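To whoever is on call:

I kicked off a structure prediction for a single chain this morning and the downstream step that reads the tokens threw a length-mismatch warning. I double-checked the sequence; it's 96 residues and nothing unusual in it as far as I can see. Pasting both halves so you can look.
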Amino acid sequence: MRALLVAATLLVAAPAFAQSGASSATLADATRAPAGRTIIDGATWRCEGASCTANGGANQTATRACRRVVARFGAVSAFTYKGVALSAEELTACNA
């Protein structure tokens, strides 16, 4: 019975865990956004206008993930990787 209770609790909590690791980027130039999905280091990125979101991804720092996205999509004005948002200083370094 306890095992069933634990399993039910995990199923209910799963969406919260998934959202806490969200990745997103706001592109400085929406014309650079890809038309379809783009996979970068295991993360599947999808863009609508200048707003891009991703699922999955390699175990790496947010600053490295940002540099990899900038290399493919161009400069970003905001970036979050697996729930870690970059500061203004980190964004400047990422876009350099």
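Update from on-call: the warning came from a stale cache, not from the record. Cleared it. Sanity check on the structure: DSSP finds three helices and six strands in the chain.
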